[in-house]
Amino acid sequence: MLTPKTQTSDIVELSVSAWFYRNRTIAGFDNPARSLYVSIREMVENSLDACEDALVPPEVTVLLSAENEPDEESGILSAGPQIYRLTVKDNGSGMEKDSIPVLIGKMLTGTKFTQRQSRGTFGLGGSLALLYGQVTTQEPIEVVTGRRGSEVGHRVLMRLDIENNAPDIVESNTISKAREESGTMVSFALEGDWIRSKKRIMDYFTQTSLILPNASLMFETPDDELVRFDRLVNMALERPEEMPPHPRGIDTEMLKRMLSSSRSKSLKSFLVNSFQRVGETIATEFLSYAGLDPEAEPSEVGQGALVALMNAMSTYERFLPPSPKSLSPAGVEILEAGVRRLEPDYAVFRQRSPSVHEGHPFIVETGVAFGGKLEQGTKLYRFANRIPLLYDEGSDVSHKVVKSLNLKHYGLRQEDPLAFIVHICSTKIPYKTVGKEYIADVDSVRREVDLGIKDCLRELKKKLRRRERVTRDRRRRSKMIAYYEFMADTLSSAIGRNVSLDDLPIFNGGDEQ
Predict the structure, then answer these.
(1) What φ, ψ does residue 41 adopt, rounded to 5°?
(2) Which of 24-28, 181-185, 322-326 has the highest mean pLDDT?
(3) pLDDT tens column, 88-99
(4) Whole-angstrom Cα distance, residue 45 to residue 204?
(5) CA-CA-CA-CA torsion sign (94, 97, 98, 102)
(6) pLDDT score at 142
(7) Stretch 100-120: mean pLDDT, rounded?
(8) Average pLDDT in the 255-269 region?
(9) Could you report the per-residue pLDDT of 441-480, keeping only the tens digit for each?
(10) Which pLDDT does position 512 carry in this prediction?
(11) How much is the mean pLDDT over the chain?
């Protein structure tokens, strides 16, 4: 029964896009400076995913231009929020004409809601960037795309219908293109603060080039500066395989939906066909453990049996770990190539064995770089699914691990030129926020990061000790040479003839006596 204060006419139902429009700060769109950074990051990462899905080394071009002219005398843009145009172009596989409005103009739609690694997690970032641009400028979004092998591409001018979470096509037409060309260009206007966000954006491109040395990145700034990060290695990363869910990675509602939609004739075949790394033997043993009939039809599982099945999944200990085939770690070779941009004296990398968190596989890759052109002091580079993480470092699990290290055990000091690199890849990164800026302090993740970093430090310690021995031997030999040069000069004066170092036994191999 409705109370007098709650009438039917007062009840409002928000669409997904309307809700996120009202709560966009949770995804990082909380001020013009950070919104500009997040918008660039999300659009670039969509392009990188498109290139990697197409199995081509990424080529991404970003153009950011100010609508207002710079100051005539200084040639510098004025401080504070203003309108910019952001254009991002890639060499990915492109999109079909009918897919453009859905993939670009509708939230929580996309190709990333699968059991395989991808940068996108929530299906929101790119759409939120476009939504933010529209609400701050009221200008339409331009999309130009084309697929390889076709002589025509498509250009779409569209707006976002926020209240209905739907695209609104303003204009659509075909364009001519070369058959070998493919990719997508997205261009839209947005409010931003370049002066305040410049350092963060430049750091983002620099760190992206570290984790993706196989990518070619070009960024034209509003200051008319062209920043390039050329490809260092010419290889495409392997595309991870899509895998069925793991029994430990689902909840009761998901299990209920899977049972109702399954075409399997028995619970045993349902488990074998619906989950990864569950064979007939494990399925039979598990159903016996759960006290359920292996021949029962999945569609006839009642609420009681459903709860029993779910409880058994959470406690059964003989399930095999999730398959790492759904992951695409960077690899030691790629990380070594990327860190060359920092020009250290030494760099050590390790890739840990696959581990599991909440039924999702993850792999931790760690590295430690030392000396060379690194700045004095400890620096941490954090990555997740090949995304640089730049905000909220103090809350990140990697930061807590690095902070807890006793560097003296490895012959190092806090003021040494030292860089830590941590990359975590998973089908479900345990981010703490929708903004994807830091990773939760999960025990299983923390343990892998800690072990990986300490393994790198031990190897670095060996390299530094070896260098110290070589340096010490050179110093000792240099002192000996200086001493024997003094002896040769003294002998020359005493006997009235020149004595060279070759005349001394230690240098000519003769008997020292």
Answers:
(1) -60, -50
(2) 181-185
(3) 999 998 988 888
(4) 11
(5) positive
(6) 94
(7) 65
(8) 91
(9) 999 999 999 999 999 999 999 999 888 777 777 777 777 7
(10) 44
(11) 85
pLDDT of residue 513: 40
**CA 438/CA 482 separation, integer angstroms:** 56
Q: Are residues 307 and 357 in the same domain?
A: no
Write the pLDDT tens digit of every residue in 141-190: 999 999 988 889 999 999 888 777 778 889 999 999 888 889 999 999 99
Predicted confidence band at 10 (pLDDT cuts at 50, 70, 90)? low
Q: How many domains does the chain have?
A: 4
Encoded tokens for 499? 């004595």
| Distance between CA atoms of residues 381 and 211, nearest Å | 10
CATH of the domain at 177: 3.30.565.10
Cα atoms found within 13 Å of the Cα of residue 437, Cβ hemisphere only = 17
Q: Which domain-ending residue is among 229, 255, 276?
A: 229
Residue 353: what residue type? S
Q: How many whole angstroms separate alpha carbon 421 and alpha carbon 387?
A: 12
> Among 92, 42, 426, which residue's Cα sits nearest to residue 246?
426
Q: The tokens of 163 are what? A: 């209240």
Rounded to whole angstroms, what are the CA distances from 253 to 80, 308, 317? 47, 13, 22
- Indicate if the pLDDT at residue 2 is higher than 60: no
- pLDDT at residue 26, rounded to an integer: 65
Alpha-carbon distance 49 to 161, whole Å? Answer: 26
End position of a domain, from candidates 229, 256, 272: 229
Exposure string of 173-201, with b = 16+ CB inside 10 Å and e = fewer, is eeeebeeeebbbbbbbbbbbbbbbbbebb
CA dihedral 489, 495, 500, 506 (to 10 degrees): -90
Residue 242 lies in a domain: no
pLDDT over 90 for what percent of the chain? 47
- Look at residues 127, 181, 180 and name the one whose alpha carbon lies nearest to residue 158: 127
Residue 172: what residue type?
A: S
Structural domain boundaries enclosing 481: 464-503
User: Tokens 């260092």 — which residue?
Assistant: 232
SS (H, E, C) 83-125: EEEEEEECCCCCCCHHHHHHHHHCCCCCCCCCCCCCCCCCCCH
Tell the burial category of 511 from Cβ atoms under 10 Å away from its Cβ (0-12, 13-18, 19+).
exposed
> Which bin fits 209, alpha (ψ -120 to 50), beta or left (φ > 0)?
alpha
Question: Do 299 and 433 lie in a common domain?
Answer: no
| List of residues 6+ apart from 224 with CB closer than 8 A | none
Structure tokens of 218? 């070009």
Q: What phi and psi values does residue 412 have, to the nearest 5 degrees?
A: -120, 165
List, as one string, the DSSP characters of 400-417. HHHHT--GGGGT--TTS-
Is residue 57 within 8 Å of residue 90, measured between CB atoms? no
Asked if pLDDT for residue 7 goes beyond 70, the answer is no
Cβ-Cβ contacts under 8 Å for 306 (sequence gap 6 or more): 252, 255, 256, 259
Dmax over CA atoms of the chain, in Å, equals: 122
